[in-house]
Predict the 3D structure of the following.
Amino acid sequence: MPLWIDTHCHLDAPDFAGDLRAVRARARQAGVGLCVWPAVRAADFNRVRALATAHGDAYALGIHPLFTPQAQEADLLTLDQALTEARDDPHLVAVGEIGLDGFVPGLDMARQQHFYRAQLALAQRHRLPVLLHVRRSADALLNGLRQCPVVGGLAHAFNGSHQQADQFTAMGFKLGFGGALTFDRALQLRRLASELPLNALVLETDAPDIPPRWLYRTQAERAQGAVMGRNEPAELVRIAQCLADVRGMPWADLALATTANALQALPQLGPLWARSTPTQAAA
């Protein structure tokens, strides 16, 4: 069975509190051998690290742009200390989730920029890749990367232009595609996913967020009592099939390529991946 890496999922979310072990078991049974858990605020660092490690997965530490209204300067010191303490932890693979959000109303962009650039500087200091939140913010993110280059990483839930995609990949980034790709109406995103070089792509779920079309319920459906399905890493396999169909390529070839891309963007994943796939590693 081809094995996959879910490069972005929030399994520490309250949605999974009651059945996390079963969720992770379903993912492994489906072929998702490894998950990357990004933290979103300093208060969650220890919990994300402990849970990801307990499940044999990878984690990243960072302050998400949606949490910058509550973030304090001391949280940057906490992040620096946590990265220092985890320097030899094989489960730590990146600084993230960090970035900028130009979609959610009411967020102070200047404050977001401050925390984004400060965390880029920490990633640079600790020589770690970054996991970027990219929502109507690609150009501003790229500008920050030009001023404070890092060793690459992943642009999560990418939905920018082809030109922006080329700029991210030139800086050593891979681009994350997930549930949004599965909607027939996502014509621009599907076109982008079909045109980009294969070596630019990684797969993700962003679980429990960004549900694929088979889990999604419209507002009207919800008003009538329909329940939105919970996204989880096991869904990555069907998402991958959608991407394979869009690109007109074999599913197994996509597994090999996206896994190789994830390992290139997040080099610390290598030993964990070898541990999760002992048969393939031995071969």
